[in-house]
Design a protein that fits this description.
By secondary structure, the protein is mainly α. It has a domain at 96-171: Arc Repressor Mutant, subunit A (Orthogonal Bundle), CATH 1.10.10. The chain is built from ten helices and three strands. It has helices at residues 5-19, 23-28, 33-54, 61-68, 72-84, 96-108, 135-142, 148-158, 183-205, 226-258, and strands spanning 122-123, 161-164, 168-171. A three-stranded antiparallel β-sheet has the order 1-3-2. Strand 2 and strand 3 form a beta hairpin. The protein starts with a helix and ends in a 56-residue tail after the last helix.
């Protein structure tokens, strides 16, 4: 069944709404638009391949490329990255030994250090006619074969170097003291966001035979002061914790009689948020929270993206 242009635009707006809050995180961790686009392409191909396998259809690079709107060479590279378990950034990780060795060479090699062992400033990229050496030159000498961008990212993150006006790399410290990455907290954020999105997708595409998952939210009618926010935050935290504790006790008892090796795990999340819907232009504002979720009278028919494009192959 074909979907209207308006519906497709609404779905694309959902992607924009999901990504927009994460831009602040992307800026903080130095993630580029190109890297984000790469993650989307890779995830799309992974999901499409799984869907075709479920439908017992061929999953050649050519077929995936046709449906995804990508070149065959791009799909081949993406699938190879998936098979090899390459990181999303597509950059090989650097070790602390490599970073330490680079800093040592920078401060001791006559081509990269001056009087009293002071590290020279380097060009960010090789520049024709420049009297200075480049960071690439340093990497080639100290850590041949290592990704210079990955090394530079690690040095900047640790505070060992700084980039001046996007042209110069200046060493700030010979010591390499890596900052502790809050990986677990970041991973939890990804898991929570995935769970919320999955729940909404379930309600949008579910059939009449499937139950609707609960969607409830409460938002202040008027803008609150910071004092008002803190009062609301306190009571929401207290009542929310009481609810979760009660539900956790219920689940413990439920598992005794309803545990299933072929079943799935389910949960309920409670979170506090700042409603930013009023910041949208007037023409795209909408009432985002509903009090009741009505059951559908007819199931949603999913689009067969391959219909009419390529013959069915098994």
């Amino acid at each position: 069944m074909n979907k209207s242009t308006r519906e497709k635009e609404a779905v694309l707006s959902v992607f924009a709404e999901l990504v927009r809050p994460l831009m602040r995180v992307a800026f903080e961790y130095g993630i580029s638009a190109s890297e984000i686009a790469g993650v989307v392409r890779r995830t799309f191909i992974q999901a499409l391949e799984s869907r075709l396998l479920e439908q017992k259809r061929a999953t050649t690079d050519a077929r995936l490329a046709l449906v995804a709107g990508l070149t065959k060479s791009d799909v081949t590279a993406l699938r190879q990255a998936l098979r090899s378990g390459a990181p999303h950034s597509m950059r090989a990780p650097v070790s602390s030994d490599q970073v330490t060795n680079l800093l040592t060479v920078w401060h001791t090699h006559t081509g990269f250090s001056g009087a009293y062992g002071l590290a020279m400033e380097l060009d960010l990229v090789p520049t024709h006619g420049s009297p200075r050496r480049s960071f690439q030159d340093l990497v080639d000498l100290a850590c041949p074969g290592v990704d210079p961008e990955a090394l530079l990212d690690e040095l900047v993150a640790s505070g060992s170097v700084e980039i001046i006006e996007s042209v110069t790399v200046r060493c700030l410290s010979r010591a390499y003291l890596p900052k502790e990455a809050d990986v677990k907290r970041i991973e939890w954020m990804g898991r929570a966001l995935s769970n919320v999105a999955t729940s909404f997708v379930h309600n949008l595409l579910r059939t009449t035979q499937e139950p609707a998952y609960m969607e409830r939210a409460v938002v202040s009618d008027e803008a609150l002061s910071e004092v008002g926010r803190d009062k609301f935050l306190t009571i929401a935290g207290e009542r929310g914790q009481e609810l979760l504790t009660e539900l956790d006790t219920f689940l413990t008892r439920l598992a005794a009689s309803e545990r299933s090796d072929t079943g799935k795990k389910y949960g309920v999340g409670v979170y506090f948020f700042e409603d930013r819907s009023t910041e949208r232009p007037p023409d795209i504002q909408h009432k985002p929270y509903i009090q009741k979720t009505a059951r559908r009278e007819s199931p949603v028919e999913e689009i067969d993206v391959l219909a009419g494009l390529v013959p069915n192959k098994k």
